[in-house]
Design a protein that fits this description.
With 103 residues, the protein is of the alpha+beta class. It contains three helices and five strands, in the order ααβαββββ. Strands 1-5-4 form a three-stranded mixed sheet, with helices on one face. A two-stranded antiparallel ribbon has the order 2-3. Strand 4 and strand 5 form a beta hairpin. The protein starts with a helix and ends in a 12-residue tail after the last strand.
């Protein structure tokens, strides 16, 4: 477990800026805000990735036209889905077997 945490810390240290979009309430537009922020940064020349960790209603893939995609997994870890404008996307939706899972 400590080795996995060290590997994660090393990989995340390569990400220069991290922005969290959070709220204590559902349905307030967090995914929409996150996608729009990401799009603005991509269009201004930044390399951008989105992590959609919402297990109850991950909507980032739908907002980006990536519904039905799957993350590729290999020895170094998971590889993000390439989205619009080369945006890298990882979402809980990519790991769920069905569109309505979980409900």
């Amino acid at each position: 477990m400590l080795q996995q945490q060290a590997a994660l810390k090393a990989r995340m240290s390569k990400v220069k800026h991290k922005i969290a979009v959070i709220s204590g309430k559902g349905g307030v537009g967090k995914s929409t805000v996150a996608v729009n922020i990401a799009a603005v940064f991509v269009k201004t020349g930044y390399e951008v990735g989105i992590l959609d960790a919402d297990v109850h209603g991950p909507s980032v893939p739908r907002l980006l036209g990536l519904a039905g995609q799957q993350v590729k997994v290999g020895p170094p870890g998971a590889f993000p889905v390439l989205g619009p404008l080369n945006m890298k996307v990882v979402s809980m939706d990519f790991f769920m077997p069905g569109e309505k899972t979980p409900s």
